Amino acid sequence: MKEQITTWLFLLLLGSGYNIESVQGQNIINEFPYELSPESYSKWTLEEGYDWIVTSSMGKPVYGFGGGESYTYAISPLFDFSSLNQPEITFTGGYFTFETLDEQGNILFSSFCDEEEKTVTFNLNEECRQFRFTKTPRGVVSVKDLIVGEAGTTDISPISQFPYTLEPQARGWKLTKGEWGSIAPIISGSRIDLLSPKITLPEKGGSLLITGKSGHLNIYGSIDGETYDLLNSTNTESTSNTPLSKDIHYLRINNIVPSVKIGALTINGFSNDLNWTVSDDTYTLSGEECEAGQTAFCWLPEVSLAISKNGSKGMASFKIASSSMENIELYFIDKNNINKEIPITTVNGIATVDLGTLPTGTYKMIPGFKAVVNKKGKTPTVVISKFFAGTTNNAMQFDLNYWYDEDRDGQMEFCFGQEEYGNYWKSFGKYKLINGRAQKYEDFPENISSLMPCNINNDKTIDYCGGILRGNDENHSFDYKVYTNNEQGENKDSQIFESWGTSRITGKSGEIFVPCDYNNDGLTDFLLPHSKVAVQLIDGSFEIHQLEILTQDEYLNRDKTNDEWSQNGNYSGVVVQDRNDAFLSGKDMFIGGKGEYTGSMGYQTSNIDFNKDGYPDIVNTGTGEILLYVAKDKYVGLPMGGAIYFRDLNNDQRLDYIVYEPASKTVTAHVYQSDGTEKTQQLISNLSMDQQVWCYDFDKDGDIDILLPFSYLDSNGAAYLVIMENDGKGKFKMHETAFDEELAFKACADIDHDGYYDIVAQYAPKKYSDVVNDVLLLKGNNRMQFELQPTPLIHLTESKNNYRIQAADIDNDGYYDIMSQYYNDQGKETSMVYSVKDLLPDITANQAPQKPEKPSYLFEPSTGFLKISWQPGKDTESSSVDLTYALRIGTKPGKGDIYYAHATENGMRLNLLDGNMGYNLDRILDASGWNAGKYYIAIQTIDPMHKGSMWSEETIFEKSQSGSGFRLSDERTVCDTITLALLAPKDPSLEYKWDMADATIISESNNGSVYQIRFTTPGEKRISLQTVDTQGNVTAVTDQTIFIFANRLVMEKLSMSPKTTTEGAIDIDNDGMLELLTDNGIYENDGKGNYTKVKKIYNTNLSFNDKSYITDLNRDGLADIVIRSYSYYDGTKPTNRHYTNQGDKILTEEIHDVNSVTDIWYELKTMDFNHDGYMDFFSDGSYLFMNTGNDIDFTEIEILNSYNNITADFNKDGFYDFIGRLYLGNNEYEYVIHLNNGDGSFRQCPIIVPEEIKEDQIEISAVADMNNDGYPDLLIQKNDNTILILLNNKNEDFKEVKEITLPMNLDGLEIGKIFDFDNNGYLDLSLLSRYNGSILYFYDDLQTKFINYGDNRSDYNGIGIDGSDKYIEIDVDRDGVPDFVESNQWASDQYYKNLSTVSNTRPEAPSNIRGTQTEDFAVIKWDAAKDAETPYTLMRYNISVKKQGQPGEGAYIISPMNDLNADVAVITDFIYTNATTYSIPLSAMPTGTYEIQVQAIDGWNATSPFSEPYLLTIESNPKMRLPLSVCAGTSAIVAYTGNASSSGITWDWDGGKQIFYTDYGKEIQYEVVWDTEGKKQISVTSDGVTSTAEIWVAPAINPEFSIPSQALLVAETPMTLPEGDYEYSWEVSKDGSDFKALGEYRVPPVRIVRNGNSNQAKATFMSTGNFVLRLSVSTPCGIATCDKSITVADELSRQEINLITVDPATGKYSISWQYPTAIPAFVSNVNIYKEGSKYNDFYLLATVPVSQTSFVDMTSNPQVQASRYRLTLQTNYGAETTPGTPHQGVHVMINKGAGNGWNITWSQYEGATIETYRILRGTTPNK
What we know:
This protein has 4 helices and 144 strands.
């Protein structure tokens, strides 16, 4: 290596120690170049210490000298450089000082080298005459290869002859590290560093070939010998070949990793071209005669891969075409990783390069190809094309739903997502198939777990739907999303649903997120989990609808007279009515069976008209269920068992089906008959066939045959293919083919395109040994047999595991491709795809079907239904019955923007599925949402290979009326925003008039097509829309109803610091906000819903448990707390910890050992059963423990001998009773009520329940007053979707049963908290179910509505009352609406936030408090409190009994536990009385005077003020006994109980009148009447002593009710009842004699229905005549009656419509009628009702006087749809007659027929018999 002297240190010496005279006599050298040689030694002077040295390089001697002592020199001869332009000197030396001298011996230039060896070149000054060398201090001089001459000629001769082979110690090569060898290896060492001499390569460059190599080498190249660049870093392979460009002149080779060897080194020079050329992504290598080692590179554009998953493997693939590869090697290279070369190999002309595991993030590479000539010869031409790079993991998609030709190049791509336990999803992404292997080219966005191609917006770009997994393995959710793209390149993603639960998306078609056209409008909708559907709106957004799934029995047993599940209108043959009844009641009806659903029909079959009634049914491939349409969002659920396959088996153009049920190993064919029923034929039974059925026309006779495969089983000893030959009518004959070979059948297709279906098979897998997994072909023939071909179709790797096989034409070349995949013993998958074109080169490609004929249509404007029909297609290879069809509809020719068909304009299919019409030859679409205009309809025929025909000629459908309907989101709450969307974009020529009930518009889309609205009040809402044209004509009227719930429950986190578990609640500081009792002490609310620990010292280590309860320990009026501990197995002594409330959030603690109730581990509830002021314990079992008076010791009451006891106050005496099941022996039970005597004892009363309840031994789940009659009813959870209410008939029996069927099954259903959630005055039921908490809302007359707020979300199990599901109501956020906080030992920090706009008002204080003393009790009574929301029967009361004038501890007998502060929050776990009487044992009330106050509590825990104090005096020997109250005008019995005689007694009755008295000896009873109401002070004086008492005289009983004096038979007659806390009973008499109670009639002559708890009722008389109706009003102080006479006239004839015609003046429907007889005077009006959107849902359109006999409906539009009407007569007191027969006018339609003809159809007139119709034609409406 030479180095320019300019980098060296120059030393200019002022003098020299050398005398030039000593060499003057020497000969001067002037011939150049001069080279040091033995011949010139004599001319040099070597002073002491120097010697001549001779070495060799490449067999040639190398001359030089070395050595030297200090201050001695080696001196050159004299030189004359006058003949040179620029003299220079070059030599190799080390540890030297070099000097040039002039003639006088002066030093001109000096430089030193302190390295062991260096090749240097110095320019010489023209004055230079001589050089000298001396040693440096570090070592001795060495100099060799010295040359002097013209600049550029002194270097060692460059290597320019090729090939050049390095020899040991070659001249010009410098080995500074390592050792030369004499033979191979020529160089070795732990470290080597080899420098080359100059190299001059040819114009074409060259290469460095190293062979016999071991270890890693770094090879550097340099242009000038100064700067070196890395050319190659070799691996451990023995040979490396490094390309060298012509500009490389120097090489350096070294190593980093120790120990290397170089066996041989050769430098090649290239004289001919070896070049790559690039054209249109095609890369061509070409050249002439090339040398071995000649190399050419080709670089491609940079590739950027987004790698989001760890472990993703990269792969590059490309096609290679080459004339020969004999003398060339190809490598794949990456400029960003230049040292890695991957040899390229080809299979069938395609190369695959494994890029290894790629790092996450953005992986970039600059791919390239390197061609290396491995031996001299003619260079082949190599063409590389279709390069692609991506990720792969051997994924393969066998579900054809996920394949799609996204880029429309004829090659299908697929989406894949695979579940991996514990890691959820792997392999997900988009894949291309290259070289028979799947190669990922795009990751799914947002970690989406599965992506299915679909078309959301009906444009040419493909969209996707999928789900994002969140959570963990046990508790996770899916965000269901759609990803839409448009033709302008814009894209967006939208979340349409979130589902919690255990269901998953795994890349299979049988999933819960299934694209479909749910409503037949051409837009893609989605089936969702849990019986939901996402309906697409016209703006591309989605609305979620909950489907109501009915059982078969529920539908068949419906009320068919008023069938709300039917559709309105007659549809002129477009759809068929009443198919469902025949279909579902057929004796052979059978859907599925008991097996698990295993079918995979694909999402294209998710919508089919299963029963051919014109409405789309749903095949839910995710749940294995057929949902049969019966009404909007209502379906009959028909479960599938095993697999189901749909085909037309009897050529009636109606789909039949075949069911394989694995449980019974049965295959059954179900064939529909013309009457709507079906016939079945059992094809096989109890035979273990494969779980697949193939249905094709195997014998090509025009009907569907059935192939049943029986793969080899050891028990069978053979494999079988069984064909069931169809006779054309759906009856089958068996043909079978047996095979001795152990075959497993995989696919059925016409592989060789000969017109007969073949079978793809393998050898059956063995359990413990490898099998030959060759893919075999069984050719079908015209004899319905299959012949096994001797040569395997494909040879696969042997494996213990069975291969998966699928056949499809992936690349659209007309030949099947065979997909295969298996898993090895390590679970690693291997996938490959083979083309049948390569496997069977002699077959021809499949031909597309013939172009079909143009379709026809029939349109029904009244419904918007468009029926499209087409003729059967034709195909060369396949029978017509095996063809499917695709329908395309667009707003322009060739477009599919209305109905998309997944095919290009020339018919090329973009997916591998059947056509969107399946095998049908017609389809009914809902075109009501299409605007006016032209629509272009075409049909395509698709063969079984999914090759599409050319499109048919287009039929033009012209719609004259714009879409006018709208879509409304599902039932919602007052807290939800509801979407209201037009079915069609807004027509600017129409005015849209909305009636949105009382909704508020939140937002509106720009074009007014979509509204967001919200209701603030609950209930059913009717929304209607009128469209009006520019002339003011109403063009259409549509309406829909929606039910709005009053509240919505959402799970939120409770703000608690620090986090803890809630066990209860108490308003400890009486501020109206409940504090939380937790296992970490007491937490307080800051008023904004944030809870923090109360900062008091006692609260430091305080912990509450589920045995804690609240009571007033010291009877000071404040709430205290007891924490009860029970016995532990470790012998720990149980304690009761008493925490006494001192006010200001201060508690004091006392710890007491307990000896009772120590071994009861289950939860005990507390209640004061005997009203002594102390809390007792009870359980739902048979345990009752009475408090002895210290909250420490309890006495067990053992009289409850029944089980599953529930407590309630059945007889309204204020004492809580029990109801339970009593075992009678012999497995018999009866239900009994244990009535509380108030002294700790109970009396047992059997009750009457329905026999089926007793026989089935059904447990009572809960007790509550569900109908607000004041008597608790019994609730029974019968099964997972049925609840029974046994209505309490005044405690006489429970025989009347209300059965409620829920709209969905709730797994593990339990009745939880019973609470008025919507504050409508009726108790509702919280229903518990895993992840499906629900509420059953109650309304008038026990009507119900159901809402499932859990919706399969984790922890949404529902609101319970005990155990792990216990919740307590607390207004967390202080919005006046009770929330529900989890309160149990397993509680988390979550609660149900109750969202509602419903308000609540405080109740009024109870009034008229009174009390008296009986022999055993002090009895308190009051009038029921009034409340705006809660009826008096559901009010509860807080009682305070306080010693008069006494404050502090011991002041209260019955503590209100709120210090008489009316604003204190109620204790949520406390059981308050709901009676209006309260009896306290005298044993708990010492003699004295007490202040009695009562507070009312409503259904939402709002409290009233306390009543004014009432003073009650308890005497030891009272002189009087009297009732608490009496009604004015009603007598009361007052008893004197003293010792005086009647003559010695003086009474003051305070205005009362004594009627008489009776002396019974022990007491004297007086009958007294007061005429005025109010408190009366009674006094009695005897022996000079006066005693006083108080009685409340209530207003006189008012039984007066009102009813019209005249009524019509069976017409509802309004009544007004007397107001008050009364019980009503009715009697009726004809002509005023022989009154009988209504219950005594077998068929009562009148039926009376009260409107809830109001004073309004309706009477319906069932016979004519004169009646007297008697009302008996019962109160505690007596009974009063009122009689009313009514004359019931015969029912007026139903007012019928005479005719519905079109009014010529307005073009609207005109309704006319006649009165058959004279109208009674009390009939005043005619009501005209019009049917809404639901069948038989008539709303009042208008009311006209009876003088009018016609009416024109200005909202009608006869040109668009027929309207349905009916009439009633209305009396002047509001009663209506029975509605007349509905009438519907004629609606005419005209459609273009064949040729020049027109088809005229019309709907039948409904309501009258029309024998003939006249058809008129004219040029105008009047001509």
